[in-house]
Amino acid sequence: MQLVIGVLVPFLGTVLGSAMVFLMKNKINGKFEKLLLGFASGVMIAASIWSLIVPAIDMVEEQGEIAWIPASIGFLLGIIFLLVLDSVIPHLHLESNKPEGVKSKWKKTTMMFFAVTLHNIPEGMATGVIFAGAMMGNTGVTIIGAFVLAIGLAIQNIPEGAIISMPLRSEGVSKTKAFLYGTLSGIVEPIGAIITILLTNTVISILPYLLSFAGGAMIYVVVEELIPESHNGEHSNLGTIGVALGFVMMMILDVALG
What digits encode the pLDDT tens for the residues 72-97? Predict the structure, then answer.
């Protein structure tokens, strides 16, 4: 029961964040949307560094190997994967008769969904590794320490759920569907945790690559989609302020809560 609760706790954070869409009106104010896009950028940059790339480097260093190799390879593969996906998405997910502005917005939110989902997979696997270590009893990891990590991830996942569901609602998607999309981006986390627990010895060896891969995917979406959108037109400084707020908040959560 402790194991089941532990792997579900981070997912509940995503659900809570996605539910914030029920508190908003049908359309996000233009200024607030720029602030939210910037905030999402800051959150994703900080999460890619402290939740993904730094842990990947630390894991390889503990194994006595060259720390930057898996991080570099995984990061570049994540960039390349999203680069390819970026060229495919308009053909797979958009109707040709939609106006260009609508197309670009749907591509932006779809890319963000993929990036956050990719980020949640290795994050869930990391949770699984921690709980597997606690169950083994000889790794120096306690069940209390594992729950601290799970709670920290849950708090971190709240803004991630919101940055999926709220922009979707702004683009005309119903609140229920926007909530479901946000929730779906996090469902991979407990799934990844369970698979990792079942295949602990196999997954641990490639986890640094997976963590860095997700980090590269998130950075691609920030640079390609979110920051340009948040600085488009007037009041671009709101996007910059949002980046700073999102980055600092996520950095504090990642560092303080581990």
Answer: 999 999 899 878 877 775 544 333 34
Question: pLDDT band for position 68 (50/70/90)?
Answer: very high
Whose tokens are 């194994």? That residue is 63
Structure tokens at 187: 């469902």
User: Can you read off the two tokens belonging to residue 30?
Assistant: 């233009």
H or E, element range at 240: helix 236-257
Task: Estimate to the nearest angstrom the gap between the alpha carbon of 30 and the chain centroid.
Answer: 24
Task: Report the b/e string of 70-108 with b at 16+ CB within 10 A.
Answer: bbbebbebbbebbeebbeebeeeebeeeeeeeebebbbb
Q: Which helix (H) or strand (E) holds 25?
A: none
pLDDT tens-place string over residues 121-180: 877 877 787 777 677 664 455 677 678 778 877 877 887 788 788 888 877 788 999 999
- Neighbouring CB atoms inside 10 A of 12's CB total 18
d(CA 253, CA 245): 12
